[in-house]
Amino acid sequence: MNTGPSPTVRGGARTRGTPDADDPRGAGLAAAALPLVMGGLLSAVLLTRFVRGTVRRVAGALAFAATGGLAVAAILQFWLGSLSGSYPANAGAVALGIAATALTVLGLESLLGFLGIGIGAVAMVLVGNPLSGAATAPEMLPGRSGTLGQLLPPGAGGRLLRSTAFFDGRGAASAVAVLAAWIALGAVLCLAGGLHARPMRARQ
User: Fold this and answer.
1) What angle do CA 158, 111, 32 make, to 5 degrees?
2) pTM reported for the whole predicted model
3) 9-18: buried (b, 16+ CB within 10 Å) or exposed (e) per residue?
């Protein structure tokens, strides 16, 4: 059973929906799922360690996501040849994936402390990454696990990147909506954690 698009080339040009000739099996795209997760997790850990203030942390997470998006997309597209399509769109897809993970973990940490980072790491790395379906397809995962994976940042980020790289952005709306929801949730959690911390600091 074919689990993905085959590398069809006509007249020297790659047809829409097929992997790049330098990476016919799409291994680079599958491998991109982990940098999306680890990039967001790493940025959250660094920000909680070295940056104080809710606004500064949120701004730092967004800046880290934008920089990471540009860097990861450039490596995948221009060095490894794993992506085609629009580089700005691909970079934006990666950035949204990183931002969704980073802000969610930041929000959990602001409410629960170090435990929040642990919960976020388990949810994104041990649950979200395997269920993302990046290595095959969400439909190939057992039961409803593929559907669940698409509702988490790793799955939605991988789906969005596949859409921008190979399908000119078609079918990207649902993935963008999922990532935007996680980004908004993370920002709200950060704000709630910051407001909760103010009375505690005032009593000290």
Assistant:
1) 15
2) 0.82
3) eeeeebeeeb
